[in-house]
């Protein structure tokens, strides 16, 4: 996390912490952790990882969903004892008082074929409905469906579009990853659900002013957040993790998947501070207050932003200007005016003189 964002979050917490706001994490599940709030079960659409007395959505074999939830709602640890006993750390969620609804929709350990019924557009639509039914105020979707070009069969996405429409009319803000470039998700692909106008699509930012090369360009206005998580909550125990174990070794927590929850958490702060705001108004606050060049999200700026008077006002755009030859037309006009004034004064003096001669 860059220093500017860290400072912005610190100031944002003076205005809101996400208290009373429920954020649904549609992902690989969310494992209970002492630094997370008590999790709310939202459903397990996988059904492959069961443990005694533990809902399937609380079993996160991939670790992905737990890291995402931690970005949103990690509780702070300020240490104990006096003087400080050295147990404190700086790890804190962007909306540390928010609640988390865990919904397990996909898993790399189960989905092994393209025709698998795990992690489909249909189960994603089902997950959105479950999140709404569970009382979510914000839905974070860090899983994506990627199709080359535009879909040739729009009907297959009707259930997803219907679910997104229901979220909008229910006052729920939906945030989704813009997607990462890969052999199965090339540039120019359509990424679902980031395709929707009612979804805040989030690109990855590697540095404060640089969009990650692997981040798929969104068809919407650019919105971005830091994409590399140095340390996250472990899905295996009460500690922390800095990488995911995969077949080829380990993989850092990096990608648009981890940029999206930064925006979801910011939406949670806004929902607490402006409980009557519509999803569109929340989106506008986030978009208008972000950096117009790279869409860098700024939680404090979003919370303190004063909306424009006109709803028709478009987000600010940067206009580049280049040096050009000095414009002397104004000077010339000024000199001409002075010359005319001089002539008028001279004529006035002459006329006055003539008038005296006549007298």
Structure commentary:
The chain contains 8 helices and 16 strands. With 359 residues, it is of the alpha/beta class. The protein folds into 2 domains: 3-304, Rossmann fold; 330-359. Strands 1, 2, 3, 4, 6, 8, 9 and 10 form an 8-stranded mixed β-sheet that branches. Strands 5-7 form a two-stranded antiparallel ribbon.
Record keyword descriptors for this entry.
Peptidase_S8_subtilisin-like, alpha/beta, transmembrane, single chain, Rossmann fold, cell membrane, Serine protease, eight-stranded mixed sheet, membrane, disordered C terminus
Main sheet makeup: 8 strands, mixed
CATH class of the largest domain: Alpha Beta
Evaluate the radius of gyration: 28 Å
Per DSSP E runs of 2 or more residues, the count of β-strands stands at: 16
Series of H and E elements: HEEHEHEEHEEEEEEEEEEEHHHH
CATH superfamily of the largest domain: Peptidase S8/S53 domain
Helix content: 25-40%
Question: Which blocks of ≥5 consecutive residues have pLDDT under 50?
Answer: 318-325, 330-359
> What's the domain count?
2
- CATH topological fold name of the largest domain: Rossmann fold
Instruction: Please give the count of helices.
Output: 8
Shape: globular
DSSP strand content: 15-25%
Mean pLDDT comes to 84
The assigned CATH architecture of the largest domain is 3-Layer(aba) Sandwich
Family: Belongs to the peptidase S8 family.
InterPro entries: Peptidase_S8/S53_dom, Peptidase_S8/S53_dom_sf, Peptidase_S8_Asp-AS, Peptidase_S8_Ser-AS, Peptidase_S8_subtilisin-like, Peptidase_S8_subtilisin-rel, T7SS_pept_S8A_mycosin
Transmembrane segments: 334-354
Domain Peptidase S8/S53: 18-290
